Amino acid sequence: MLKLIFFITFSYSIFSQEKIIEDTDRYILVGGFAHIGNGEVIENSTIIIEGEKIVAIGPSDLVIVNKERGKTYDLSGKHIYPSFILPNTTLGLVEIDAVRATRDERETGDLNPNVRSQIAYNTESIVSSTVRTNGILIVQITPRGGLISGTSSLMKLDGWNWEDATYLKDDGIHLNWPELHDFHYHGHSHVFTASDNSVENEEKEDVLKSLSILSSLFNEAKKYSKIKNKHIDLRLQSLQDLFNGNKTLYIHVNGANGIKESVLFAKKNNVKKIVLVGASESWRVTDFISSNNIPVILGRLHSLPNYTEDDIDQPYKTPKILQESGILFCLDYSGDMPRMGSRNLPFLAGTAAAYGLNKEEALQLITLNTAKILGIDNRTGSLETGKEANLFISTGDALDMISHNVEMLFLMGKKVSLDNHQTKLYKKFSDKFDIK
Question: CA 296, CA 259: separation in Å to the nearest integer?
Fold first, then answer.
């Protein structure tokens, strides 16, 4: 009898705690400028968050609110944005470049389609928290190296472990297309010599060899799919989802010729879903990309043009060219120091806005467009009823590095801490020297 009383009391305590959580699991955001992410803006908005979802959003005079049910925030004069989404990053896979034990972004060998980045993700990274507090809440962690690096996954920048942080596992396989380098590439002119010709010939042989290896692998994978009773080959097994459309083939390529060759290769091998990554020369072959309906994850805009004869601001102008061509594309932040610098992703969108796009069009390049390309637009990427409450509040324009200042974060409907290693250091020394 005593045990029964204890169980009833304990059960009541649990249910009571759950009720309290439910009561405080409802947030009402009133008066802010809501940047929807699809090109629309609601100047005086009301957003109601309940559980993981946005249950209501609209102009404040049209949304009926019971402010006694939930925590209400007056956001008058402030800006509300959907979570920024960062594709093609090694965030959480590498902590310190100079320390080998903290680098887990690549495997040995050239062909690793079965390698999964998800289980290598480090939720305790001090870098991730600094990126999160600039409005980036979802990232696509992507392996590096070889001809086929492995499989990426989408992760939340908050969680106890990699399982808790997983947003979408194994979304696609990453292929590094073998390309010939040009001696005028990346802004460096060069005088040709006899030795250059030998280097170029050697590079051509390497490219042809790599293409032969890729062709053999895909041919084997297609044959493997037709065998009924077979021994499991993890490499070939992992490629099967490319043929049935369950995974995307992300092709990392930059040159105009490489873009054409890689897409034709993928189509010849019956790959259902293709995305170009990097694609710095995509502006030269927009007709080809558009006619084949291939999305693009455009490499970092703050880069030099590829050739000395290109306009110095060509990378800045590329987004406008792609948009006018009707190509679905988004932005990434790969390159030198990609993890530490990736918090600046919104300012790349700001550059695109300065070179032909309006602010809301530029915002789509790091929100809804990215969600569409990664296959999660039914869940996130914009502020809409029924979608997950992945959003943040800034006191200023999130695409402007001077005024952007994140005040509040929501991930899956839960408030997320703004604390990180840098804010702790700031507080430590501002307290020490009495800086207000």
Answer: 11
Whether 179 contacts 253, CB under 8 Å: yes
Predicted TM-score (pTM) of the model is 0.89
366 shares a domain with 289 = yes
Q: Token match 């800034």: residue? A: 394
- Are 199 and 267 in the same domain? yes
Domain that holds residue 362: 84-379
Distances (CA, A) of 56 to 19, 50, 351, 382, 393: 21, 9, 32, 13, 17
Tokens of 64: 């009926």
Confidence bin at 12 (pLDDT 50/70/90): very low
C-beta separation of 225 from 240 below 8 A: yes
Token pair for 55:
């249950």
Q: Which residues contact 187 (CB under 8 A, 6 or more apart)?
A: 304, 305, 306, 307, 308
Q: Render pLDDT for 100-145 as a digit per residue (tens, 0 to 9).
A: 777 888 888 999 999 999 999 999 888 888 999 999 999 999 999 9
Whether 249 and 276 share a structural domain: yes
17 within domain boundaries: no
More confident residue, 351 or 425: 351
Are 256 and 200 part of one and the same domain? yes
**pLDDT band (50, 70, 90) for residue 199:** low
Tokens of 233: 């080959």
- Burial of residue 56 (number of CB atoms within 10 Å: 0-12, 13-18, 19+): middle
Predicted pLDDT of residue 196: 57
Residues 88 and 76 in one domain: no
- pLDDT score recorded for residue 11: 35
Q: How far apart are CA 122 and CA 342, in angstroms?
A: 17
Distance CA 329, CA 344 (A): 18
| Nearest CA among 333, 359, 427 for reference residue 127 | 333
Residues 362 and 434 in one domain: no
Q: How many domains does the chain have?
A: 2
Same domain? For 277 and 374 the reply is yes
Return the pLDDT at 10: 34
Quick one: average pLDDT of 166-192?
73
